[in-house]
Amino acid sequence: MASKMASCIFCKIIKGKLMSSRPKIPCFKLFENEKTLAFLDINPLSQGHALVVPKFHGEKLTDIPDDHLTDILPITKRLVKATGAVEYNILQNNGKGAHQEVGHVHFHMIPKPNPQEGLGISWPQQPTDMDKLKALFEDIKSKV
Q1: pLDDT per residue over 48-96, tens digit each?
Q2: Domain-wise residue ranges, the chain
């Protein structure tokens, strides 16, 4: 994991070290404590689009210890209030197939001020087989 951390752009932002071969990437820090960093996204989907990042390096949510996640939602809620967003998305992707671009857990707070700005998604609902859904429920519930 050390080599992944060494090349991780979010780890570099957290440590204040950015690649010398590239132009300096600005970090507009909105919040920071010992376990979490929040900053504006430099490629925003809308005004106020921010990232909330645990300082512990892990590619997927399941890689992050619970005690490094306790501030995520309260900080995100503060960002929502600070931006004045009325409608917004909170997004967290895990793996390239799920559209994760940076291999370090991060949460997006994306204001949705109008149909043209913010996150655009489709919701391809699948038909439900209630017997299969009940079996799935029982399987997952037994493991929680």
Answers
A1: 999 999 999 999 999 999 999 999 999 999 999 999 999 999 999 999 9
A2: 2-143
C-alpha torsion 66→36→104→64, nearest 10: -10
pLDDT band at 7 (very low <50, low <70, confident <90, very high): confident
Question: Of 8, 84, 95, which is closest to residue 46 (Cα–Cα)?
Answer: 84
Superfamily (CATH H level) for 2-143: HIT-like (3.30.428.10)
- Which structure tokens are listed for 132? 């299969």
3-class SS string, 96-143: HHHCCCCCCCCEEEEECCCCCCCCCCCCCCCCCCHHHHHHHHHHHHHH
**Active-site residue set:** 106
The upper half-sphere exposure of residue 45, i.e. CA atoms within 13 Å in the direction of its Cβ, equals 20
Query: pTM of the predicted model, to two decimals?
Result: 0.88
